[in-house]
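User: two proteins, same treatment. go.

Assistant:
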Amino acid sequence: MFPPIIDICVLWDEEKGFRRWTWIFIKDGAIFLLGIAGFTTGTYASIENILLHIND
């Protein structure tokens, strides 16, 4: 989740056209959303397994 934020911070001062920035934000946004989805589903699966082992 942090690499897209770092990418935007590093590239912020560079002169790029509107079309280039649009693709950078789309790419970084997609990576960020996939990271959030993986984090959420992974956390849910881990907590579910922990609770199953505790209740046994």
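Protein 2:
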Amino acid sequence: MNKLSTSLLAITVAVSSFAIPPVHAASSSASVKQTTKPNYIMDYGLTVVIDDEIIDYKQKPAIHNGYIMLPVKAYLEDFGYTVTWNQKTKQLHAKDDTDELTLTLDRSAAIFNGEKVVYSAPVMMINNTIYAPAAFISDALYRDMEYYEDEDVLHIY
């Protein structure tokens, strides 16, 4: 084996030995590197519980760079928001009797009632569905959240 092959093999082994980062619920007010081509995996094992009710939507949660991502429209509509998508601006707007929210595709900031809030992961589109960090859903529903890694359960309460 020549020096180049040996070096490439060593680099490959070293890189492949890194562990996958832990899953987070994506807290607000953290900076994030923007990506235009997100990488994600669908998490069919994750259970989402809101106020002691198991939520099971057609669009399953996803994991993006270690952060739990949830399908925005399904969650917000279930809690009384009217949700619209503007294809031209790549923005999702949600409104209920008291709150107005705006998310922009590939951005980690959201607008809550005119105030900018920054999350740890950008809004993304997966299979024509808009996903946002779990912390966005928690904030929009005025609830706290906790992730139980051992059981793979996200509890929003």
